Amino acid sequence: MKYETVKHRGRTLRIPVDDDGYVPQDALLGRFEEWADKRDHIQADGSTRHDPRQSSRGWKDYTHRSETVLPAKVTPKQAALWWHNPGNCDIEGIDTPGRPKRNTQGHGTKAQRAALAKIPVTAIELEEATVRRNLLQSFTNDELTRLGKARVKIHVYPRTHTAVGTYESRRNLVTVDRKHSIPQTTITHEVVHALRDKDRSRRGILAKSNIPGIEESLTVAEQEARNDSPGFSGYYWDITVFDEKTRRWRGPTNKEAKRMAEEDHKLFTGGRGKGLRGAAAMESVSSNWSKSHIARLSYKSKGKMAVNQATGIYLGIEPVSKAQPRTSKKKAAGGVSVPVSRPTAVAAEKRVPKRVKGQKTVKRTSKLASNKTSKPKVMRTAR
Questions:
Q1: Is 278 exposed, middle or buried (0-12, 13-18, 19+ CB in 10 A)?
Q2: 11, 97, 188, 211: least CB-packed within 10 angstroms?
Q3: Residue among 198, 268, 174, 166 at smallest CA distance from 227
Q4: Which residues contact 234 (CB under 8 A, 6 or more apart)?
Q5: pLDDT reported for residue 260
Q6: CA-CA distance, 293 to 320, in Å (whole number)?
Q7: Which long-range contacts (CB under 8 A, 24 or more apart) does 81-85 make?
Q8: How far apart are CA 215 and CA 206, in angstroms?
Q9: What are phi and psi of 257, to 5 degrees?
Q10: Ramachandran assignment for 32, one of left (phi > 0), alpha (psi -120 to 50 degrees), beta (any other)
Q11: Is residue 54 a contact partner of residue 39, using CB atoms and an 8 Å limit?
Q12: Which pTM does this prediction carry?
């Protein structure tokens, strides 16, 4: 990469430059993220002090437009003020929203480009291209056309740490955190939410549910069916597993949560390792959801599993007993292996074992014990 030396307020700045004389977009993004992630201030004595007020300052800067806004294409000299401190002004698309884009050149066939053009994406060009590639990878032309007719739009920007993505039904808006826009997982998850909401041809468990646990569980299931690789959604850390050592239900360890995601991906893709699209993806969810790990999701339900919540709503859904399993060696119905090895999660099938006399159901009090490995920074997606 080439650099240009620029003098600014007595400082010498080395700013990347491309062959056309402009600062590359990835360099601008990198500088903004470096500035946004800085949390410590250097004191007069040389020590550092953590400043909690600096948290989420990337999001704060993006959502507050400066009086001075530089164009998306800037030379090193034009960018010097911003490069020194991105809080001084804004660059369009980097730390303030630009205009929605409909660039489809180079993406698939003519029919695919026509479908993509109906979905506006607010992002810089690099991010827009990634989003459109992921859409083509996970959805059919018909599904993309339905999104366009529903006027669904996508916005990529630096979100807060509460979620890596959202879907807002009233605004027909899908938002994706900038740092999570490259993997297929997040954009697929949020667009599935949109299709479950807007596609009127969907029925039963494939349509939107107003019960949060059911909606998120089935959305993750369809996301796994459509992705080419396991999507380590944060919801896998909200699945209850049975610990054979303590004979109690608890939250999974990091290793167990990841393994459950991997096994679900294998289940929903039929073991082929490549994502499905359209009717094939939906049929896989209909056939396999009740046998999956994600069906045992407990989210905003006071500990009740999604599959058990769905039992009284949808036909053909069998409940999962939360009593202690007879044996951890028994395999799940549908060819799914024992969920996770030692401690073991109960397979997703109906179990009604006899409870030991005088034994009480153990109430789940926390997701992870404080002396165990903490949950990694895998954010859940939210609606």
A1: middle
A2: 11
A3: 268
A4: 375, 378, 379, 380, 381
A5: 96
A6: 11
A7: 81/8, 83/6, 83/8, 83/13, 83/15, 83/23, 83/31, 84/8, 84/9, 84/11, 84/13, 85/35
A8: 9
A9: -60, -45
A10: alpha
A11: yes
A12: 0.80
Span 41-52, mean pLDDT? 56
How confident is the model over 265-281, as pLDDT tens digits?
999 999 988 999 999 99
Q: Which domains does the chain carry? A: 2-91 (no CATH), 110-198 (3.30.2410), 204-335 (no CATH)
How far apart are alpha carbons 318 and 303 in whole angstroms?
A: 18
Burial of 170 (0-12, 13-18, 19+ CB in 10 A): exposed
Compute the distance between CA of residue 143 and CA of residue 128 in angstroms, rounded to an integer.
19
Distance of alpha carbon 66 from alpha carbon 199, whole angstroms: 39
The pLDDT value recorded for residue 354 is 43
The sign of the dihedral angle between the CA atoms of 123, 127, 129, 135 is negative
Q: How many CB atoms lie within 10 A of CB 327?
A: 9
- Mean local confidence (pLDDT), 199-216: 97
Q: Are 207 and 238 in contact (CB under 8 A)?
A: no
**What does the pLDDT average to over 59-72?**
94
- First and final CA of the chain: distance in angstroms? 40
